[in-house]
Structures are given as structure tokens and as C-alpha cells.
Write a structure and sequence with these properties.
single chain; seven-stranded mixed β-sheet; binds coenzyme A; GMP Synthetase, Chain A, domain 3; alpha/beta; binds adenosine monophosphate; 18 helices
């Protein structure tokens, strides 16, 4: 083993400016120092390998194991008896916890169960699970074997699952019989069975965690019971993998119905995530960190599972909602009961709490003295929500901006380095490693205060996506081709005179619904497939709770024989059945025509402004201006 060393824990805060500048001037020195906090089997030959630019690789030649770094090394280095994972599930009335030793043993045994089914290094394993500890155990067991996992969020329907099965081609699927939402039990197994039926690729086996709320029927010869396969499995040691080998694939919405398989490597990921825990989030090993998200999203991968454990923190896995499980005091109960130091969630969760408990009455009974900071991400944080949280909690509230692709924050106030004054509405400044620029359409940098495309100069820092799964061309097209030499974030915004970034909107069809990333193009594909629909547009409309919600406008085929409400209901059902309930697609307007330019492009941004009640002007290129009034009438505006 190479040396294991904690990063700069304790001591005074390093200056943000000097740390940031060093990270850009000497990225290899900067990240190789950060890499000393990770345990390697073999050191790297090169810190940054640009041999295949614009495809960059970090720590080539090195070998390590991410699960070893998350669990075993802590067991060996004095944290064996520290709590590693707290499972808090108000929906089942359970609070349980495991030390690093106990979690390591459970993971090693489940890795043995996977190996017993023939899973080895390089084999993909798809994980479709609710927020149960077994989801994290399955992820870590895959990492232990060097088998890339692909976790699919439970709120996606069978069709989305099938698309991911076909792309990742997993050897095995790990799932659970059901998930538990506020007011219903969601049976996962029928969705999984349907997905396997639709998919072209057939996995060899499924391992199913039976939950008492809705046990599933197992298919003999294919489905195995989690407890049965694990009970007698042998505990498996960690498999060394290359730093550049994939740790996981995480699918995220692209501009079509075909999701993009974001690849994460092992080495750069461990280095970067570990570095963020102290420098961005300001936590020390041994403290309790809680990301109230879902393992199906990148926040769950990075900050429920990998970063806290690699850094030696206790992580909380919460199976519940901010409200309704049982009340808007749920987050304060969990924070207080488990001495949470840092809470990370989406602004929408706080909007829900604020809506149900505007005066913070559910906060008062709880001792929140452990809490040092609240971090928010996933969507724009509106200043009202930020101020409400600041006033009620009395701790810094930090909006930070990042993406599935980047795996960790691009722009943030970094409380472990040097906290900056907050400007509500801005996630503050670029994080070390990120050379963020704002470009016009011609690729020229714009002056401060001018809106443009936000990009990051290549090479991206470690832990960011090296490519898309089996799709180097797609990676280039989506991220690199628009502005050669830069990574396109697809967010538009500006930098102000103090260097603060302001994230204004997406430049593609992605919308953020309750912090969940969705493609309106993908919803349009489902709507357009209805036999009575001639054409349609789906746009993201502002919503007080969820930030945005998708709203459909459809033009019916001449002679469509169904009444409008029936077709609208059918469309809502079909999006729910095809994409999933998480799309929250509930509103459809039947309109006589769609507003278009003379060249036939649907004027979505004007429609959005009308729907949001914002000022709008009739575009000069419009084919027939009267249609905009018709849209306004349909929306009651
Ligand atoms: N499995 C199955 N269904 C799921 C699901 C899951 N894992 N997660 C959500 N759903 C369903 C919900 O039950 C709901 O179904 P419904 O239409 O029958 O009510 C639908 O998907 C939409 O869910 P959600 O987005 O959670 O909305 P909600 O109205 O139930 O709750 C909030 C609103 C704000 C409380 C909730 O969105 C929330 O907690 N948001 C925080 C989001 C977050 O943490 N994002 C991660 C980024 S950091
Ligand atoms: P996801 O990949 O699901 O994390 O979604 C990433 C997208 O969410 C970004 O490209 C932004 O559009 C949006 N987003 C995430 N965090 C923020 C933030 N703090 N402020 C504004 N938008 C954000």
C-alpha cells in the first residue's frame, strides 16, 4: 500500500484565492497532493494524461479500490467502531446504524454473493432500489469487485429502466420488492419484470430484497432472494482496479428520449470527492454528514455514499420526505437525533417545508446545535427560500451549482477554505480546479455582467466525466464540439464584477422538476406517439413548489374522435407509465395551433414567458402572431 494520510484537517483556513490560483496554474501538483489522502495499491505514472486529448485521464498507471478507501482502510486505521451509516426511515419506523467494521463486513459478504453469481471486474450491475441501506451496500460491493454499477432512480417507469438495461447491458440486477412513498407502497418488482421483458438485453440474474410491505413473487431460475444468497456467501477482499477504470455509469437526461450514460472513474473520483469534504463542505472525519437526496441521483452517489465514507464521515441514508413523513419537522428531528453537522438537499425540499411550516414551529422543539451549514443544489435557489432557511436555522445557507456530469461542485461558497459574503441568487465563485468562462455564440469571452454560455476550460478536474458509456462520439458532440477546448455545461448565465457566477437557465430542453432533471424532448416523444396528437410542445413552467413543472400543448389530428379531457388524461397516464411519476406531468392544454417561426420552429421560449406571466414580445420571425393570443387564452393569461 502507498501512504495513507488525512488531508489538511484542522488548522486555519487556506485562502480561497491562492488555493484557486494554484489549482489552475499547477493542476498536477495540486491534485497529486490531494491524492495523498487516498490509499493506492500502486502509484500513478502520470497525474494528468493528455495523450488522447480532448479525452483526458487522471492518475494513469495507478491502481486502487474505491470500496477499500471507503471502508476497509478506516477499519484498519482506527475507525472500526465509528458509525459509518445511519439508516433513518420514518416510512417504516426504523432507525438503525452500522459501524465501519459492520458495514465493511456486510459489503464484503454481498460482494461474495455477487461473485457467486459470476459477477467480476468489468461486469455491469444495475441497481434499482429505494432508499434502503442495501442500496448503498450493493453499490459498495460492486466497487469492491471492480464491477461498474448503474443505479436507476426508483421513480422511473419500466420503459426508462429498459433503456438503461439495453445501454449498460448488466450481467445482474439488484432490486427490492417495493419502495414506500408518503401515501402508497410502490411495487418495484412488476416494473423490473416489465423492463426485462421490454429490453433486448437479458441479465443473467436478479437479486431481490424482499420487504415486508409488499413481498414480490420471484421467478424461479432468474430471481434470487437477497438474504438467501448473502447468508452463506464468503466475504470477498477488494479487487485492485486502474484509477481510470469505471466505478459507475449514471444515466441522466439528454436532449432526446435517450439518456446519457455518464461514466465515473475510480481514482480521480476518490481524490476529488475526498478533497471537497473538507474544503467545500468544511467537515472533518468523524462528523455526521447528511445529504437528503436519493441514491438514484448524482448527489446520492457522491454525497450519501462515496464522499462521506471515503473521508471517514458518518453518513445518513434517509428514507422519507421533507414533509408528510410525518410532518415538516422531519429534517429537524433527523438533524437533532443524529447530530448532523452538514445538511445537503434541494431548494424544493425547503420550499415544501416553508409552505407547510412558514413560521418554523416544527423547528423549535429540536436542538439543532450540531448543524453548521446547509448546502442547496440541483436547481436555482430562489432568494426567498435562502433567506427563510438562514433566518430559521441561523447557519450559513450555501447555494452551489453542479451537474451529474461533474460529480461535484463547479461553483460554490467554500466554507472549508474561506467563506465569502453571500449574494442571494448566486452560487458564489468557481471551486478550485474549475476554470469557468462565459462565452458568446462565437466562442468569445463576454464582459462581466453579460449573459452567455457557461463553459469550463479543458482539462476538467479529476472526478468529472471522462466520457459517456460506449459513446465517445456522443461525449464529443454533447460537451466538446460546440466550443473546442471547453466543456459545455448547457447552462447560461454571467459572471459579475466580483467574480460571482449567476446561473440563469439551460440552453437546451432540460428542466428541473423538484430538483429532478428531466428532458422536455423525452416527454414530447411520449406525447407525440398518441394516435390523436398531430403535434405538440412540452415546456417547463415556473412552479412555486417544484421550481418547474412540465406542461404540454397539443394540437389534435383533424377528426380526432376523443374529447379533450379524455385525451389529456390519456397523455398524463402515458407519460407516467413510460417515463415515471417523477416527471410530474399533469397538465395538458389542447390548442388549435402551435406558435412557430416562418421556418417552422416552435416558439417555446415565448410560450414559456406567457405561461410564467413574464413580459413578452412577439418575435419578428413569427408565422402568425394571433396564435400567441390563443395560447394566452388557453392558459387563462
Ligand atoms: N419511487 C417511486 N415513486 C417515486 C419515487 C421513488 N423513489 N420518488 C418520487 N416518486 C413519485 C412520487 O410518489 C410522486 O408520485 P405522485 O405523482 O403519485 O404523487 C411523483 O414521483 C413525484 O415525486 P416528487 O418529486 O417527490 O414530488 P412530491 O410531490 O411527492 O414531493 C417534494 C414534493 C418537494 C417534497 C419532493 O419533491 C422532494 O422531497 N424533493 C427533494 C428532491 C431532492 O432531494 N432532489 C435531489 C437533488 S439534491
Ligand atoms: P443534475 O445533473 O440533475 O444535477 O442537474 C444539473 C442542472 O441543474 C444544472 O445544469 C443546472 O441547470 C441545474 N442546477 C443545479 N444546481 C444549480 C444551482 N445551484 N443553481 C442553478 N441551477 C442549478
Amino acid at each position: 500500500m502507498c501512504n495513507t494520510q488525512d488531508d489538511q484537517e484542522g488548522g486555519g483556513l487556506a485562502s480561497y484565492r491562492s488555493t484557486y490560483e494554484r489549482s489552475l496554474q499547477d493542476p498536477e501538483g495540486f491534485w497529486s497532493e490531494a491524492a495523498e489522502a487516498i490509499t493506492w495499491y500502486r502509484p500513478w505514472d502520470r497525474v494528468l494524461d493528455d495523450g488522447q486529448a480532448p479525452f483526458y485521464r487522471w492518475f494513469t498507471g495507478a491502481t486502487l479500490n474505491t470500496c477499500y478507501n471507503a471502508l476497509d482502510r478506516h477499519v484498519e486505521n482506527g475507525r472500526a467502531a465509528q458509525t459509518a451509516l445511519i439508516y433513518d426511515s420514518p416510512v417504516t419506523g426504523t432507525v438503525d446504524s452500522w459501524t465501519f467494521r459492520e458495514l465493511r463486513d456486510r459489503v464484503a459478504r454481498f460482494a461474495g454473493a455477487l461473485a457467486g453469481q459470476g459477477v467480476g471486474k468489468g461486469d455491469r450491475v444495475l441497481i434499482y432500489m429505494p432508499m434502503v441501506p442495501e442500496a448503498a451496500i450493493a453499490m459498495l460491493a460492486c466497487a469492491r469487485l471492480g464491477a461498474p454499477h448503474s443505479v436507476v432512480f426508483g421513480g422511473f417507469a419500466a420503459n426508462e429502466l429498459a433503456t438503461r438495461i439495453d445501454d449498460a447491458q448488466p450481467k445482474l440486477i439488484v432490486s427490492a420488492s417495493c419502495g414506500i412513498e408518503v401515501n402508497r407502497v410502490v411495487e418495484y418488482k412488476p416494473l423490473l419484470d416489465r423492463a426485462i421483458e421490454i429490453a433486448r438485453h437479458t441479465p443473467d440474474r436478479s437479486i431481490i430484497l424482499q420487504r415486508p410491505q409488499a413481498p414480490a413473487r420471484l421467478i424461479p431460475g432468474r430471481d434470487l432472494d437477497w438474504h438467501e444468497v448473502t447468508e452463506h456467501a464468503e466475504m470477498i477482499e477488494c479487487t485492485p482496479v486502474a484509477a481510470t477504470d469505471p466505478l459507475y455509469i449514471l444515466y441522466t437526461s439528454g436532449t432526446t428520449g435517450h439518456p446519457k450514460g455518464v461514466v465515473r472513474d475510480n481514482g480521480g473520483h476518490a481524490v476529488a470527492l475526498n478533497w471537497t469534504m473538507k474544503n467545500v463542505y468544511g467537515v472533518d472525519p468523524g462528523e455526521v454528514y447528511w445529504a437528503a437526496s436519493d441514491v438514484g441521483w448524482v448527489v446520492g452517489h457522491s454525497y450519501i455514499v462515496y464522499a462521506p465514507l471515503i473521508h471517514g464521515n458518518t453518513t445518513v441514508l434517509y428514507e422519507g420526505k421533507p414533509v408528510g413523513t410525518p410532518d415538516p419537522g422531519a429534517f429537524w428531528r433527523v438533524t437533532s437525533q443524529h447530530d448532523v453537522v452538514t445538511l445537503f438537499t434541494a431548494p424544493t425540499a425547503f420550499r415544501a417545508i416553508k409552505r407547510d411550516d412558514p413560521d418554523g414551529e416544527h423547528i423549535t422543539p429540536w436542538d439543532l446545535s450540531s448543524l453548521r451549514a446547509l448546502f442547496l443544489a440541483g436547481e436555482r435557489c430562489d432568494p426567498d427560500t435562502l433567506h427563510w432557511a438562514e433566518e430559521r436555522l441561523g447557519v450559513p445557507v450555501i447555494d452551489h451549482w453542479w451537474q451529474t456530469e461533474t460529480g461535484w461542485p463547479i461553483v460554490s461558497n467554500q466554507i472549508g477554505l474561506e467563506p465569502m459574503p453571500v449574494k442571494p441568487g448566486s452560487p458564489t465563485v468557481a471551486v478550485p480546479g474549475w476554470d469557468v468562462r462565459v462565452l458568446d455564440d462565437a466562442g468569445v469571452e463576454v464582459p462581466d455582467g453579460t449573459i452567455g454560455s457557461i463553459v469550463a476550460k479543458l482539462p476538467l478536474p479529476p472526478g468529472t466525466l471522462p466520457t459517456l458509456w460506449n459513446n465517445d462520439d456522443g461525449y464529443r458532440q454533447a460537451y466538446l464540439d460546440t466550443f473546442p477546448g471547453y466543456y459545455l455545461t448547457s447552462d447560461a448565465g454571467y459572471r459579475d464584477e466580483d467574480g460571482y457566477l449567476w446561473i440563469m437557465s439551460r440552453i437546451d430542453d432540460i428542466i428541473n422538476v423538484a430538483g429532478h432533471r428531466l428532458s422536455t424532448g423525452a416527454i414530447e416523444e411520449v406525447v407525440a406517439a398518441h394516435p390523436s396528437v398531430a403535434e405538440c410542445a412540452v415546456i417547463g413552467v415556473a412552479d412555486e413548489l417544484k421550481g418547474q413543472i412540465p406542461v404540454g400543448f397539443v394540437v389534435l389530428k383533424a377528426g380526432a374522435d376523443r374529447s379533450h379531457p379524455v385525451i389529456a388524461e390519456e397523455l398524463v397516464r402515458s407519460v407516467r407509465d413510460t417515463i415515471g411519476p417523477v416527471a410530474a406531468f399533469k397538465t395538458v392544454y389542447v390548442v388549435p395551433r402551435l406558435p412557430k417561426t416562418r421556418s417552422g420552429k416552435i416558439l417555446r421560449s415565448t410560450m414559456r414567458k406567457i405561461a410564467d406571466g413574464q413580459p413578452w414580445t412577439t418575435p419578428a420571425t413569427i408565422d402568425d402572431p394571433a396564435i400567441l393570443d390563443e395560447i394566452g387564452v388557453a392558459l387563462g393569461k
